[in-house]
Design goal:
There is one protein chain. By secondary structure, this protein is mainly alpha-helical. It has one domain. Helices cover 71% and strands 0% of the residues. The chain has four helices and no strands. The longest helix has 32 residues. It is elongated and about 65 Å long. The termini are close together. It is found in: Cell inner membrane. Belongs to the TRAP transporter small permease family. Pfam families: DctQ.
Length: 161
């Protein structure tokens, strides 16, 4: 469990770093509009930073069970039934994510040898963000099931932590 806390901390730090960098680059882009200088790289870097901030942030949201859900009818179910229903939802999300990991990696391999126009970053690393997201979202989906069924956690309580 200590390894999971470290992993969670790393994902949170990476989310904050990529999002902070995104805000700084956007600020540079805005300032560039009022100066004679042209920062052509900002649009592309903003896109890649956004992709990675989502790639690191989505697993954090899954860990804390903060994904948006429509629970209008679920609220009427008894607590025990609701727990198993939510476990089933996490199971479907985990299995679906796990099934897509190899396909996402195959897609990332398509980017090998291709570089982005302005920054000349190999596109493999940009596409690899999907693999990262799917691995950790699937992991936290299954961990949520484990903790939900083992500890009888309420779905309103925080996730894996």
């Amino acid at each position: 469990m200590k390894a999971l806390k470290i992993l969670s901390g790393i994902l949170k730090i990476l989310t904050v770093l990529t999002f902070s960098a995104l805000m700084i680059v956007v600020l540079i882009q805005i300032i560039g509009r009022f100066t004679p200088f042209s920062f052509v790289w900002t649009e592309e870097l903003t896109r890649y930073l956004f992709i990675y901030s989502v790639a690191f942030g989505a697993p954090v949201a899954m860990e804390k069970r903060e994904y948006i859900t429509v629970d209008l009818l679920i609220g009427f179910l008894p607590e025990k039934v609701r727990k198993y229903y939510n476990a089933f939802i996490y199971f479907v999300l985990g299995v679906f994510g796990a099934m897509l990991i190899t396909h996402a990696y195959d897609f990332a391999l398509l980017g090998e040898g291709q570089t982005s126009a302005t920054l000349e970053i190999e596109m493999f690393y940009v596409h690899l963000s999907m693999v990262i997201t799917l691995i950790f979202v699937s992991l936290y989906s299954f961990l949520n099931i484990y903790h939900m069924l083992r500890d009888s956690i309420n779905e309103s309580e925080e996730g894996v932590e």
